[in-house]
Amino acid sequence: MKCIRALAVFAAALAMGVAADDDPAYYCDSDSYCEKNYPGTACISVNNYGDVVSKCTPNTAKRPACRGTTPGLCPSFQSADIGYLNAHCVFVSEENLSLSSSGSGSGRRRLMGAASNSSSAAASGSAATSSTTSSGSTAASSTTASGSEDSTATESGSGASAMYSVTIDGEKVSGQFVCLDVSDCANKAADPSTCEPTTCQAPDSKEVCTYHGTCTYKNKKKITKRSCMCYAGFEGDKCEKEVSNACDVDCGTGGDCVDGECVCKKGFDGKEYDGKQGKPNQRCTLCTNDLACQNGNTCNTETGKCICGPGYTGDTCGATEDSCTTRTDCGIGACQVLANGSSACYCPLCSPSCSLCDITGNSSFDCSTCPTDSAMTMQSSKLLVFASMFVAVMLANLAL
After folding, report:
1. Which is it for strands 334-337 and 87-93: parallel, antiparallel or unpaired?
2. pLDDT tens digits, residue range 55-95?
3. Which of 112, 215, 266, 275 gets the most CB atoms within 10 Å of its CB?
4. Cβ count within 10 A of residue 251
5. CA distances from 392 to 18, 352, 379, 384 (A)
């Protein structure tokens, strides 16, 4: 029994190891991992639509990470295939911190949902106590704050448990700076009226800092004002300008960050393959031959974009979510994506050829009545018996 239990534990550990190997190198479980592999970074987490992603994030004196008592950068842009990270650095009150999965030194929980241990880290803060004047947000606007009052901002505790206190609308609030997806800001921010500043995003848009920066507080004593802090290689008020091949930990889909610079992978590097050779760019975002495109799809070297066939999406056509993914009415049939991107249910019997299932009264394909092999055999047998009896009766009548 002990041997069986040990084998089960070993198998689980092996499965976890395989999952870890599938993760990009910049996913992390501790500050020490990030410091070793990407010097000048720390392991910061963000809840991305239910999936907690922990990623090595810049953490220097000039470009601090967002956590604890310090506002700053959050995990950065990845790619359409892996999933964009669209994070704000938000001041969250102490009572709402338990609702946030993004914290100081929190462990990596991969997109597959594997949990891991948390690690503590020292917060790089400013002086322990300071006095300031803060603008209290009294209007329901997300871009401006009306009124001002004297407030006192203080820090208490140390390390990962340190709390920062500030006065908001005349009330003293203690909390921490946390990386949140833009969709979570209104529910968890201590001051929700600051969740959609026009300095970080266009009105009615959820695209923060063009996916190339973090909407954060430049001065934590003024938590009513936020703006974009850009990742390496980008500049502009909303980080919209691509200025170099410099990188922090990654270069999206087409490149690897090596010694702080983007190095393009095959298919993005401008080398010729199978008669195709496009021109690369410094951020490795343009395909230059078909090696860049997944699932047999091809590269348009004039536009630098992969041409995705039906059922495939994403920068490299690696995403396979389509109209069949959420379809539940095929019963025992098989769903297939059609040329126009829509889908249809097919009966599982495809010999000599597949045929569409019967259309029900509500004009949707329904395979719940598709015949199985055994059913077809039974139906064929019954038909043969009926035909034999019919022929026998006819012959008998003729004989009479």
Report:
1. unpaired
2. 999 999 999 999 999 999 999 765 655 566 778 899 999 98
3. 215
4. 27
5. 67, 31, 20, 12
